Amino acid sequence: MINLDDVTKIYKRGAAPALNHCSLNIGVGEFVFLVGSSGSGKSTLLSLVLREERATSGQIHVLGQDVTRLSRWKVPRLRRQIGTVFQDFKLLENKSVYDNVAIAPQVIGRPRHAIQTEVPQTLEMVGLAGKEKRMPHELSGGEMQRVAIARAMVNRPKLLLADEPTGNLDPTTSWGIMTLLEQINRTGTTVVMATHDHQIVDQMRKRVIELVDGRVERDQERGAYGMAR
Ligand SMILES: Nc1ncnc2c1ncn2[C@@H]1O[C@H](COP(=O)(O)OP(=O)(O)OP(=O)(O)O)[C@@H](O)[C@H]1O
């Protein structure tokens, strides 16, 4: 699903590498936490997977494609197969819940009748049935993140990348979001989540990849946030 082979990313000549000879392999259906202190390279790794940034050296395969060589016109097709969720939700403030989700199938040209069934189905899956007409400012933080997850999932991507999805939420609300991500993973979507949330990582006991200064310091099945020494 995701394979990095000796990947280095240097943003500016002379700067320390954001990723430094990084190799890892994430298989279909896995749930992986990406942890590490601020600046360790988590977001950089996610942006390389999405081909928002390009590696300085090394090879990256995502969904069977060599994204280090992928021509520019093929990048949108790659991104269509990847759902993304962020800490700040990135909702369109002047659009309803329904329209925020519908935008994803609209941009890839899904037929209208398909959108009319897929959007309500997805909103139900994330627990927002009945809130289609609400505007983002009429939602709680947890509900806003559910809209973002619905938008990420409505086109049924095989891979979901989440960059600190619980970063703006209180612990109880965060657990609701984690339950949802786990459910999405159980239905076959590979989930990679960058997080600083110790409690969540410690309780969920999923695979943990820890970055330190852009290097893979630890890659552990059923890991905790900090290394047990
Ligand atoms: N667009 C950019 N241009 C230059 N340097 C960058 C850029 N993005 C990230 N960096 C640098 O790369 C390094 C890794 O940053 P990155 O954002 O990947 O870390 P992170 O682990 O996601 O941090 P955080 O937990 O704070 O989000 C940092 O030193 C950062 O300053």
UniProtKB/TrEMBL annotation:
GO terms for cellular component: plasma membrane. Pfam families: ABC_tran (PF00005). It is found in: Cell membrane. This is Cell division ATP-binding protein FtsE. It is a peripheral membrane protein. Its main location: membrane. Homodimer. Forms a membrane-associated complex with FtsX. Belongs to the ABC transporter superfamily. Coiled coil: none annotated. The keyword Amino-acid biosynthesis does not apply. One of its GO terms (molecular function) is transmembrane transporter activity. Part of the ABC transporter FtsEX involved in cellular division. Has ATPase activity. One of its GO terms (biological process) is cell division. It comes from Boudabousia marimammalium. Residues 2-228 form the ABC transporter domain. Keywords: ATP-binding, Cell cycle, Cell division, Cell membrane, Membrane, Nucleotide-binding.
